[in-house]
Here is the input.
Amino acid sequence: MTPCKTLLPAVLTAVLFSAPALAAPPPAAALPLTRGSVQVNITNGHVEGNVCLSDRPMEARDAFVLNAGLNVARVTDGAGAPVDFDGWYAPGVDGEARVYAVAGTPATLCVQYVGAFPVYAEHDAPADFKGMMAFNGDSARFTEQSAWLPLSFDPKARVRRSESRYDLQVDCTGCRFLYLNGSPAIEGTQGRFGSDATRPILLFGGSGPITRTAQVTILNETLPTAQVDVLSGMVKRIADQHGRYMGQPLAERPTFLRMVTLNQVERDRHGSEWGFATWPTIAMSGSVGKVAGALQAGGDPAQQRVQYLAHEMAHYYFGTVNRPQGPYFWFLLESTAEFLSIKALRAISGDAAADAYVARLQSAIDTQDTPPLSLDAVDEASDLDETYRYGYGPLLLLSLESQVGQARMQAFMRGLLAAPSPRNWSDLQGIARRAGIDADTWQRWQARCVSGGKRRCGT
Here is the structure.
């Protein structure tokens, strides 16, 4: 699963998706469905669930995963008959979750479970990350990575099926509002949520305010009207830029979620920030107002926030419309989003801002102790570290643009969006060829900029 990433004020970098395999869209009846009920208490960290999974992929019917802090009471099929399962003793583990093997592969799988988690009302936890079921005293935050709902699991490929349609009743003691990713927030302690589109299912129950505009929704924080306006305006400008470049508009506008992290005291002490994107949610530690305030102030701080927002919004394309998989997972997910953010930064803040940002990325690569892995030699997704995903990868894409021109590069990016994830270098070249990049130009770029892990083209 995707690790967390700390964001420093100087350069706000992107974050986090748990992305299942991309395939041709199946008929609506075959899209996975999660339905049932969940009860949460933000005062004592108590969680109960009774949730059913249906329309599961055949390869993921033998197992499911559930957060390691949740205890399974019983498993049944859609008619209520008991289903045998393993996972009590010497369980398999997948990141934050236990792996449970299921007998008989029923078409519908229902799991009843219960658990309790620490409540860090003083915000003094030793750590916080996207995979935690987080209780901070006045909110509960569960992302798809935390496996707060049972997720279908392919034990051979070791892949979670973390996106689903949903029909869920949520009750939250102590909450003022409830929010499920992709549905409007509901004010109150209980609500019924549904989505006919498959989504990573994030739950946030909080006690703060809600602000809604045509461009954005802001949860758990009140911003001055001027800051709301500037944030809304920038979201529209970025959405328009991305839509023009990728040839299709963003179908949704983001929901900004203010979260006080479990370790907010430590983050404040060091002046660090953390955020993640589970589209259309963009979650930010501390304050959404800091981002809006920087945009309002202008100058270098504003440019940093433009780049950050543009990266997160680019995950609508790479991470949502196209869900990467395979050895190029991180390159397809994060390097493409970073490339699009640089294009947006140039269009919105100007050449000087974009050139300065690119120079910072290049400097980080120039000063590395070892050269980057050659992109044409990548075997596993884990081969690409953070510096590669957010720094070297986008520089490679910029170098390709310098070789083939802006029009063909735009066609290449649109081709990446439309195609299944390339599994090898030959697949990647095939996408380039369909974008009008001839074999000689591709091989020349490979020799000058890629092979051997060159820090710069021709070196």
Q: What stands out?
A: The radius of gyration is 22 Å. The chain has a mean pLDDT of 91.
